[in-house]
């Protein structure tokens, strides 16, 4: 683990040497890369990670403005940073407001062509948002977002994300009814997740889904 952390830091240092620190965007990029590395290798707590992410995001756009404004433009990277903050945020009200805002931003791509053009970002953000709504017990909204994202991914022939979206709805069903085990229909759906994960050669996800139906 230490070797991986040190290797990443070395790469970040090389990038840092090539960037002009007169520009806030460059400073933000380097600092957030360092934060990513610290968080991935558990050198920083979720709370500290969130606080520092909010601080770095504020170099280009304050989080408060993102939450409260109905007319704010965000770059791809800024959207990713908001997602990172949402995932680790402990305050349920702030987490919900961030999920609502990301949902609104991504669904501003109203036309099918626009959504197809941004499918990589759309699936990345909306899969997480769907899961967050499920965690907040907003199961119907979670399922609706998951189904919508799944259909769009199918139309774009993007299969790798499908197992997570399918599983999301099965988890919602079991959790909503406070059951310890998945029912027969849910197990059939999770078996689809296993098959797709095997097809996409995602051994880690395949093993996870197999454990859910044992």
Task: Describe the fold and architecture.
- The protein is mostly helical and 214 residues long.
- The chain has helices at 2-18, 24-40, 46-57, 63-68, 76-88, 92-106, 112-117, 119-135, 139-155, 162-176, 184-199, 203-212.
- α8 (119-135) runs antiparallel to α9 (139-155), α8 (119-135) runs parallel beside α10 (162-176) and α11 (184-199) packs antiparallel against α12 (203-212).
- The mean pLDDT is 92.
DSSP helix fraction: over 70%
Strand content: under 5%
Q: Rg, please?
A: 19 Å
Count of helix runs: 12
* SS-derived structural category: mainly alpha
* pLDDT < 50 runs, ≥5 residues: none
Q: Give a short account of the largest sheet.
A: none
User: Could you tell me the mean pLDDT?
Assistant: 92
- Topology pattern, helix = H, strand = E: HHHHHHHHHHHH
General form = globular
Q: Count every beta strand, where a strand is a DSSP E run of 2 or more residues.
A: 0
Distance between the termini: 31 Å
List the topology elements.
Layout: H1 2-18, H2 24-40, H3 46-57, H4 63-68, H5 76-88, H6 92-106, H7 112-117, H8 119-135, H9 139-155, H10 162-176, H11 184-199, H12 203-212
Helix pairs in contact: 1-2, 2-3, 3-5, 5-6, 5-8, 6-8, 8-9, 8-10, 9-10, 10-11, 11-12
